[in-house]
Amino acid sequence: SVPHGAGPEQREESAFLLACRRRPVPHTPVWFMRQAGRSLPEYREARAGIPMLEACARPDLVVEITMQPVRRYAVDAAIFFSDIVVPLKAIGIDLDIKPGVGPVIADPIRDAAAVDRLRPLETDDVPFVSEAVRALMGELGGTPLIGFAGGPFTLASYLIEGGPSKTHDRTKAMMYGEPELFARLLDRLADIAATYLKIQVEAGARAIQLFDSWVGGVGPEDYRTSVLPHSRKIFTALEPYDVPRIHFGVGTGELLGLMGEAGADVVGVDWRVPLDEAVLRVGPGKALQGNLDPAILFAPWDVIATRARDVLARGRTAEGHVFNLGHGVLPTTDPDMLARLTDFVHEESAAR
Ligand code: 1CP
Fold first, then answer.
1. Pick from 13, 50, 124, 194: CA 20 to 30 A from residue 306's CA?
2. What are phi and psi of 207, to 5 degrees?
């Protein structure tokens, strides 16, 4: 229990922050990507009739939806309810989040003129973000808040493709065919992401996660040349704040070492690479986060428990381990299974 007005020493007692910093923990901390959202009936109720981007701009709703999974589960961290495209909307890009689809951009960015029109993000562009984070500080007690932003490749993909894409054809065509233009775009997106993260940290977020969800489609050499320098710029900009920096992508098995090199303190791993193998790929000096297959939650409980125990065992080979799914909670997941899994991770890891 953390007393009111806790100083830095007590604040460090959060198992989540300790694990990110590769320090001893009382139990393995756990949170779930997309823990707030469609799998919760109370979320669907809070969002009824309110478009996603409107919800993101209303501090009362952001606070409520961020708190919902914290009330329901014994999770060790909260994630700020927002979306990776919120800062893009805030600098004037005409976009919407369509139900059942995701972000859709009215005028995709495909030439130099469009790239040059992207302006930097200013704190004044997202007053509702600072306000919601500050309000959350009063609600969360000792539970740390994770701020987040979209990674440069993933944001570029939405802007260039104009919406969700499985193959990122046009994005990669620009990366391969117009490398200087691609670099200019990613550089601007890196500045936007860095500012968006700083805004959240300055208002009280205690860790940040960079979601470069779709960068797994890029090979290691192209990642090193075309993406890593921009992600590094973001992590370097956050360095003075001394908050743990988590770096996550899907299908990034071949990129894990480079994603650590970009400057993360914690590397997120999807379910395709076992954590003990990820430890070897990432190398020393980093904590890992992951990596139960979100689809496992549809299996019977004894199967879930066996798999979770396996993730914990492999995670013990890392210098620090934050338990999570390998990607976001799927919308039809039974919340009771997540509640049970949270308690199981705590009990199993504390008993050792
Ligand atoms: O109508 C709705 O309910 C919209 C669904 C939804 C939600 C709940 C979207 C649209 N975004 C979000 C919230 C969100 N997005 C959060 C906070 C909630 C939490 O984690 O508990 C976060 C961290 C994100 C980040 C995000 N948005 C990512 C990276 C994480 C990941 O899942 O890989 C990505 C890729 C997006 C884009 C996006 N926004 C929404 C959707 C459906 C998508 C994906 C679309 C696609 O498949 O390309």
1. 13
2. -155, 165
